[in-house]
Amino acid sequence: MRSLTGTGLIVTALTATVAALLFPLWSYADRTGTAAGAAAADPTAGSVPTRFGPLSATDRDFVERVRLAGLWETPAGQQALERGTTAAVKLAGRHLVDGHTALDQHVRDVGQRLGLELPSQPNAEQRRWLTRLGAAHGGAYDREFANILRFAHGKVFALVGQVRASTRNSAVRELADDAATTVLDHMKVLEDTGLVDFDALASGPPRPAPPASGAEPPPAPPRPTPTTRPSRPPRPGPDHDRDPAPLIPVPLIPVPLRRELIPHAGQSPAPPRRQAPDPHRLTGAARLGGHVRRRDRQRLRPPRLVTQSDIPH
Fold first, then answer.
1. Burial readout 107-141 (b: 16 or more C-beta within 10 A, e: otherwise)
2. How far is the C-alpha of 201 from the C-alpha of 169, rounded, in Å?
3. Rounded CA separation 19/244 (Å)
4. Whole-number Å distance between alpha carbons of 132 and 293
5. Can you tell me whether residue 120 is helix, strand or coil?
6. Is the pLDDT of residue 193 over 80?
7. Lowest mean pLDDT, pick from 33-42, 67-76, 213-222
């Protein structure tokens, strides 16, 4: 009886140990709330049925990314045809325009067949890249173009391989085959420019390239001329540009008035008195009692007319 009891205890202990070891694995596999748990539990999570096969969330993201690539890489290729300074950069621009024009037509057809709403403009990061390319000139533009486009194609190429290996949708699989051929061709022509910095691409997005030695920087925008306000409003007239003469205060001098010139209330002013003439200021004629001297009379006599009798024969 004791042996049976001991055996039961041993079996119970072993069962509890095995259950404790298996419980964490079962609980981790049942965590479908995380992305890794969801992928491990159901690889087709978020899929919707279509007549081309199940369409997963990864498939939809891939189709949208292909559409976004064509929205900004096509104008970037057209810009390279105009601004590129080497034949290799212009050739890469031509490949971008031709390749993404055909690929964009394909992705829009796939989106219509699958009932997907595709974007109509580049995202914020792609618009920043276009802004950087638009601000570059000369050799700096060539380096910016080669490195930015090579970095973007490298990101898409990794997604293309993942979707091509895992999708169960035939329409998405055909798009992945077309995208893989196009993206690989673009990566090759960009690398053939000889301007791709692979060490910099491994560390993240390319940084703005420094200006080339000897290249002329783009002209700076003109600075606004400062405007000054007049200290006082202009005055009308021909002399409005001249400063007014300073005013000099003049003291008032009191002038004494004669008493007889000040009338009393109710009386009219008296006429002024006539003063006697000053004898020292009289003329010579006045001093002689009004008689004009003979010399003065001769001076005042009118001239006599000369007659014929006055002329000697």
1. bbebbeebebebeeebeeebeebbebbeebbbbbb
2. 32
3. 108
4. 117
5. coil
6. yes
7. 33-42
Mean pLDDT to the nearest integer, 158-173? 94
- Taking only the tens place, the pLDDT of each residue in 265-277 is 555 555 656 665 5
pTM: predicted TM-score of the whole model, two decimal places: 0.54
DSSP secondary structure letters along 176-233: HHHHHHHHHHHHHHHHTTS---HHHHHTSSPPPPPPPTTPPPPPPPPPPPP----SSP
Cα separation, 198 vs 221, whole angstroms: 35
Domains of the chain, first to last: 57-202 (1.20.1260.10)
CB 153 within 8 Å of CB 161: no
- CA–CA distance, 20 with 217 (Å, rounded to integer): 71
Sign of torsion over alpha carbons 125, 128, 130, 133: negative
- Side chain identity at residue 36, one-letter code: A
Q: Strand, coil or helix: what is 48? A: strand
Range ranked top by mean pLDDT from 5-14, 48-57, 294-303: 48-57
Q: Which residues contact 298 (CB under 8 A, 6 or more apart)?
A: none
Q: Which of 33-37, 242-246, 294-298 has the lowest mean pLDDT?
A: 33-37
H-run or E-run covering 29: helix 2-29
